[in-house]
Design goal:
single chain, 305 residues, alpha/beta, five-stranded parallel sheet, four-stranded parallel sheet, 15% strand, globular
Length: 305
């Protein structure tokens, strides 16, 4: 892995992914270990977060480490004009690893280039979210008992959705077939489609969210239309509720189908889906704890027994 940091899922080879997924399973079986005893982890969240921040902090605590950091950049020296470079150089003096979420694409890679300790990217703008990808891959493998040759349908904000962009790359090692469902304003960027074409990955684009497509699917990956990515709120209002999954739409789906969502959801999954055994998004979020334990040990070079 690149300089021990986890900046983007595309720096992970297939064997890196499988190693971390195997370690995630070990942490699910036994999450409380003192592997970070004496270590300090800094969490720098320049953007809001609930699941990612708390699961990383819970992972550190369950591994016996200590957490420092912030969840509101307005309370830090960046509000006084301190550069990201100076912030990272300073906090590198205090911590053994830095977990960072930032609104600028490429911020995590830049931080990794100047930091003296590993950087874990907890999301940089609309770019990458590698820890989410690994927990998604773990959830897929756990529910499907394999990663190879699956049909994955992604729905919603495929333009700005960093979880989608990362997951396309992560699944590329396992011969997937993709269905991309999005309104014209939020369709999959050309960069991700070229990535699929260069690797011979099959994909189809759709505007309509139909039960016929759902019935061909192994993993239905729903996403939120992200208001914070829009500069034009009129455009956001036009597309925010364009796709809503209802329980009745799953009636003819495959027995193995599972519904995933990186959360938070707004209206894109109706509450009547929650009681369907094919709904897996809350268990998916739980898997984030074990995945992030595995990531922290991996970037620190710690062997997991």
């Amino acid at each position: 892995m690149l300089c021990n940091s986890l900046v983007s899922i595309d720096q992970c080879a297939r064997e890196d992914i499988l190693r971390m997924l195997d370690n995630t399973g070990r942490f699910e079986a036994c999450p409380n270990r003192k592997m970070l005893d004496g270590k300090v982890v800094a969490t720098l969240f320049f953007e809001p977060s609930t699941r990612t921040r708390l699961s990383f902090e819970a992972a550190v605590n369950r591994l016996g480490g200590r957490v420092i950091g912030f969840q509101d950049a307005s309370t830090t020296s960046s509000s006084k004009g301190e550069t990201l470079k100076d912030t990272i150089r300073m906090i590198s003096n205090y911590a053994d690893v830095i977990i960072m979420r930032h609104h600028l694409e490429g911020a995590a890679r830049y931080a990794a280039e100047i930091s003296s300790v590993p950087i874990v990217n907890a999301g940089d703008g609309a770019n990458q979210h590698p820890s989410q990808t690994l927990l998604d891959l773990y959830s897929i493998r756990k529910t499907q008992e394999r990663l190879e040759d699956l049909t994955i349908t992604m729905v919603g904000d495929l333009k700005y959705g960093r979880t989608v962009h990362s997951l396309i790359v992560g699944l590329s090692h396992f011969n997937p077939t993709f269905h991309f469902i999005a309104p014209e304003e939020l369709r999959t960027p050309d960069e991700q489609k070229r990535f699929c074409e260069l690797r011979g990955i099959r994909y189809e684009e759709h505007v309509a969210f139909t039960e016929d497509i759902i019935n061909q699917t192994d993993i239905l990956y729903m996403t939120r239309v992200q208001r914070e990515r829009f500069t034009d709120l009129v455009e956001y209002e036009r597309v925010k509720n364009v796709y809503i999954l209802h329980d009745r739409m799953l009636a003819g789906s495959r027995p193995n189908l599972r519904v995933l969502h990186p959360l938070p959801r707004v209206n894109e999954i109706a509450c009547d889906v929650d009681s369907n055994p094919k709904a897996y998004y809350f268990e998916q979020a739980r898997n984030g704890l074990f995945t992030r334990e595995a990531i922290l040990c991996d970037v620190l070079g710690l062997e997991v027994d």
